[in-house]
Design brief:
The protein is mainly α. The protein has one domain (31-215). It has nine helices and two strands; from the N terminus they run H-H-H-H-H-H-E-E-H-H-H. It has helices at 14-23, 33-50, 55-69, 85-98, 103-119, 127-139, 173-183, 187-205, 209-215, and strands at residues 145-152, 158-166. A two-stranded antiparallel ribbon has the order 1-2. A hairpin with a 5-residue loop joins strand 1 and strand 2 (158-166). The longest helix is centred in the last third of the chain and has 19 residues, at 187-205. The termini are far apart. The mean pLDDT is 85.
């Protein structure tokens, strides 16, 4: 990194610095949708049942709805180059709003990601990793711009002639800004309900695979 004039990390090589920018950890990768699925299922049902009755969840939903409303207009992925990280983060949130992702889903993702990190014995338990993993999970819901161009042939049948699939870069400060913006309204929800969500996940889907292996069943 020093030879290329792009800085010098104190303890890590360029490969690990770039890995942290993408995943929030120098060594741990991003959790897949399959790994998150049982935690998200438990968190979704838990939040749905308490969306009106629980004051902490209700307040988080209100704050997240306002966050999405204030995110402003969206923009297609091919036009993001040169924009500041703050603006790109706001556009990402606006894209989720336009895609119809409800505040309940945001709260469920925050709970699910945190529960997975908490239960996985091989996870990286730092706040930055959790923040990035939350943003990554949200990013998968509405990240790309897709367009297909068609022409009619002589018989009047549509024929695809070209298509474009563009995705904003899932790395760097934009992920941190998205994750922090969504985490903040959910702080009390995590404080009051994380243990219950994790218990519900274990009841329905069993313990984390690594714990089942370590425990012999």
């Amino acid at each position: 990194m020093r030879a290329e004039g792009i800085g010098l990390a104190a303890f890590h090589c360029r490969k690990h610095v770039e890995h942290k920018a993408r995943h929030g950890s120098h060594w741990h990768g991003t959790y897949s949708a399959a790994e998150l699925k049982p935690y998200l299922a438990a968190a979704t049902s838990y939040v749905r049942l308490r969306a009106i009755s629980d004051r902490f969840i209700k307040q988080a939903l209100t704050d997240l709805a306002l966050l999405l409303e204030e995110a402003g207009p969206t923009e297609i992925a091919t036009r993001l180059k040169g924009m500041s990280a703050t603006r790109r983060a706001r556009i990402a949130l606006a894209r989720l709003r336009v895609a119809g992702i409800k505040p309940e889903r945001f709260v469920a993702i925050v709970l699910a990601v945190t529960a997975l990190i908490e239960e996985d014995p091989g996870s990286h338990r730092t706040k930055e990793f959790r923040t990035v993993q939350i943003a990554k999970a949200l990013h998968r819901l509405a990240s790309g711009y897709h367009r297909v161009w068609e022409l009619e042939d002589a018989n009047g049948r549509s024929r695809k002639v070209a298509e474009l699939h563009a995705f904003p870069r899932s790395s760097g400060p934009v992920l941190r800004l998205i994750g922090k913006a969504v985490e903040k309204p959910c702080e009390w929800v995590l404080e009051k309900h994380l243990s219950a969500v994790l218990a519900l996940k274990v009841k329905r889907h069993g313990r984390h695979p690594a714990l089942r292996t370590a425990g012999g069943g």
